[in-house]
């Protein structure tokens, strides 16, 4: 590689941040520099490559076709650099196995079981990273993620994700009409809404309240305020305890909970943790609780 032909790292970082955020101001904030510095770096890079990379407008910036190609390559490259640095740091000493997981799945499925893993593998420290946002595995933000969806490159399906329409016992006893009963969902639960609409449970006249978290969604349902569609692994304990009642089980959705490893060299604790997860998931599927 002829490094003399490669633009400065500062210019490349400035452009990538601007293209990713769609804003010179946001890029400046992300890199802790001034708006003027970002603008100067981008213009210098455009002069060096001989092409316009960003369209400037009153509402921000947008990558040109050439700029979008360069931005994608830079994002991938910076992600690989971050992962490599993280791997080098780990070589000095193994830290905890960082597991990115949604708060609801962590609270209702993982935590009631993880004591068995700790008992069998006291040498493996596990750090749960609960968040509804997808962890940036390529950037080394976590060692593995447990995600709900239809799969990702390199992922492994642990559990199928059938949905249960749940209600408080008193509301369930009244045999409510789902289309005429209030629903509680999270703002990003588009898949749940689609399945409920396809099953005829929600229509254009339905009352739907969006809650900022699944914890608040379930709190509203427990209080008898309405219904919610939840994956069976998320509510298995409450269904068993009788605090919630499943008034309907939706058909197989094709979605599930997937184990998604980071692309970096695997953490030494990942192999036993993944094997334990498979055993736990197999037990649930065999019992019919998550099938």
Automatic annotation (TrEMBL):
Entries under SUPFAM superfamilies matching the protein: Periplasmic binding protein-like II, Winged helix' DNA-binding domain
Record-annotated HTH lysR-type domain positions: 7-64
Top-level taxonomic group: Bacteria
InterPro entries, alphabetized: LysR-type_TF_proteobact-type, LysR_HTH_N, LysR_subst-bd, WH-like_DNA-bd_sf, WH_DNA-bd_sf
GO molecular function term, any single one: DNA-binding transcription factor activity
UniProt entry keywords in alphabetical sequence: DNA-binding, Transcription, Transcription regulation
Annotated coiled-coil segments of the chain: none
Pfam entry (one): HTH_1
PROSITE patterns named among the record's database cross-references: HTH_LYSR
Annotated family: Belongs to the LysR transcriptional regulatory family.
The name this protein goes by in its record: LysR family transcriptional regulator
Organism per entry: Hasllibacter halocynthiae
